Amino acid sequence: MSRLAEHLNRAWLHRSLLACTLWPISLLMSVLVRLRRFGFRQGWWPSVRLPVPVLVVGNRIVGGAGKTPTTLAILQHLQARGLRPGVLTRGYKANKANKASQDAPPHRLLDASTEASLSAAETGDEPLLIWRRTHAPMAIGRDRAQGGRALLAAHPELDILVCDDGLQHLKLQRDIEVIVFDERGQGNGWLLPAGPLREPIDSIETPGLKAPPLVLYNAAHASTFLPGFLAQRRMAPLVSLAQWWQAPEAGGATVPRPPQPGDTVLALAGIAQPQRFFHALQELGYTVQGLALADHADFTQLPWRDAAVDLIVTEKDAIKLNPTRLRQERPLTRVWVAGLDFHPEQAFWAQLDAALNRLPLRSTRACLPATPLT
């Protein structure tokens, strides 16, 4: 994370001198955001209704509030109900060179027929991680409505589309919204650039919803005045990078022993809040040397020197690390992946199921009681 980003994140938690200086600009931003939302509501700007229901996962605060773990949990829940979900996502920081090409398509499809030809550099790290965990077909591109049409043309069997990080993408009509907050809540309560909010926390409800928006707190307790549900998160057991990729260990060697609490480890995190990852490892008893990178950092050059150390990374970073490359460039480093077990409370699933049962879903299995996730 850059120093500027760290400084802004700290400033946005309070009504600091910097935040107060930027406050007049945030007032203008508030007017524009409210006008835009009102304009879509009044039909001044066109929006698209796709032929299958759309569920949007997003947040009103910048940075990582837990959208990707929420999207993963929802996709797995939908699949447990017997539904066949697809995913719409922007693919943040996907290969810009390809995007700039006039011949490049406006979106990419990620599915069983294309996965072998696409890398995290081309899809973005989060889309590839979502695909790896759920195998839900996916359209990646800025225009979610256009991507949705293409995805449904390629996969007409899909029952519902889940839009990852599309809360402000009002060009696409939706049936259900899930709004995610973390411990920061609404920060100082101001919009960008004086605060962390993308839109007012009390924004008017998006038209066409089949139920009021569901609020999920990726935190120990509610962090805003909005009623909602809590999610528990804990770190999954460590697995080697080769195991995580299901790649063979070098020369068929025995998988090494994972680091244990009390051991000193190097931890790498290219996520919005790397300190959260480091703190979670410290709570498990590890002595952590943290290497914080910018969110969605690429690994054109590996950012650590080769040494006989245990390196723990997030899944979002693991998706960009090839075991074969590491055996060649960092043969002494033992790399471990720490996944995240993310579990919204059961009341959240009950409310989501109630909203799903109001949708015109094509699958006859979709209205069966969902199997609780454990």
Walk me through this protein's architecture.
With 374 residues, this protein is α/β, with parallel strands linked by helices. 31% of the residues lie in helices and 18% in strands. The chain has twelve helices and 14 strands. The protein has helices spanning 3-12, 17-42, 67-80, 96-100, 120-123, 125-134, 144-154, 241-245, 274-283, 315-318, 323-329, 346-356, and strands at 54-58, 85-89, 108-110, 138-140, 160-164, 176-181, 214-217, 229-235, 239-240, 264-269, 287-292, 310-314, 334-338, 340-344. Helix 9 (274-283) links the parallel strand 10 and strand 11. The chain is globular.
Structure characteristics:
nine-stranded mixed β-sheet; five-stranded mixed β-sheet; 374 residues; alpha/beta; disordered C terminus; globular
